[in-house]
Amino acid sequence: MIFNSELSAQQQHTTSPVVTGGSVIALAYKGGVVIGTDTLCSYGSMAAFKNVEKIAQVSKNTIYVSSGEYSDFQQVVKELAKIDRSALQYDDGVHPSPRDYGNFLARLSYKKRCKINPLYLQNVIAGFHNGERYLALVDIYGTYLESNFVTTGFASYFCKAIISNYWNENCTLDQAKQVIRECFKVLFCRDCRAHDVIQLGYVDEQGVHVEQPERVETKWDFNGFKTRANEKLHTQ
Amino acid sequence: MNYTEILSPKFEPETTGTTIMAVIYDGGLIIGADSRTSSGQFVADRCADKIDYVHDRIFCLRSGSAADTQTIAKYVRYYVDAHAQELGRLPAVATAANLFRNFLYEYKDSLSAAIIVAGWDPYKGPQIFTLPLGGSVIEQKWSIGGSGSTFIWGFCDANYKENMTLQEARAFVLHAVAHAMYRDGSSGGIIRLLNVTKDKIEREFIDYKDVPVK
User: Fold this and answer.
1) pLDDT (tens digit, 9 = 90+) per residue, A170-204?
2) What's the rounded Cα separation, in Å, for the pair B81 and B56?
């Protein structure tokens, strides 16, 4: 993969992100893997793009989402989509498995990290192949980790505890989805760059299913919120 | 280029990256604010009250460093209280504004604080004083502040009218703050409104589900 910016030694690509996508949470369940992400792309602190559908289907049984610089995400989607197309040239009916995509992305990320010109992304690849679930995290340096659950960004701080307590790898799809929704409720309350409209996508034996964006319900009408310290100073 | 520097998180001081607003209408003024206090990307307080009491009919809206503005407001509250005790009547809004100004001006190199002082007094009725970063004092009929305000200058310039009624002013503030919260990552949560008139103070809590723009 040659990136045009690397042809000129002076040019740097992504040293600080401009348009960024939010946290991604992925959980394996009995029969597949489900990924959740919100539908917001931020421009610094501004919530610039609010209806972005970020779950990319890269092959019949693999989905890919990432948090970080959105243009890098779009570029990687293009690169991953090329893999299956170029595999057709072998004309042997063999399609790359989800693990092939994960490995490719890890190698690509590491190569760019070595050139001090990283893809500013935390990547999540999920798939279902030969009766087996696949879920992997590839970070900005090219670190590759396969796991049953994966979180990126702020979700790594807030949501791992929720996932530990309410999820197990053999739960149902609905249970896994509900855990993800709960995680995004917390994120919406505590992450400045989060949005309460999320999108879920899952891969199972039948293939890839990406759902319509949905809004998560958060609670704000606590009595304590309504009557706060400043109230007690009022003498009326 | 320091590679590790770009990729490691930095600790950011707690600020009220915020949206605050005050508007004078025919008979009083409406104050509005969001409820998010952020520490970098983390929401430290999702239900903050940024409308600070200074005196019975004087309030301040804080933006910038939470520590700086809370401390200054505390001092000014004390000074205004002592002054009102001696005066025996309601203090002037301009007095409170001037006390804030002294802090912001004398310590301008050390502080990160921008404040809107809004209130009613028996001498000049409802007044709003904007005190930006350097410590200047500007009297206005309406004022917006905080990081979220950048997104609603156009909206406010287009929709502000002189001598609005209470309902019009309330709707104006509610929608303006909602629009700012919609786009500013550092503003969010619920909206707090306050109506200040000669006779009374009315607080309103707008739940997230009732915010007009989401």
Assistant:
1) 999 999 999 999 999 999 999 999 999 999 999 99
2) 10
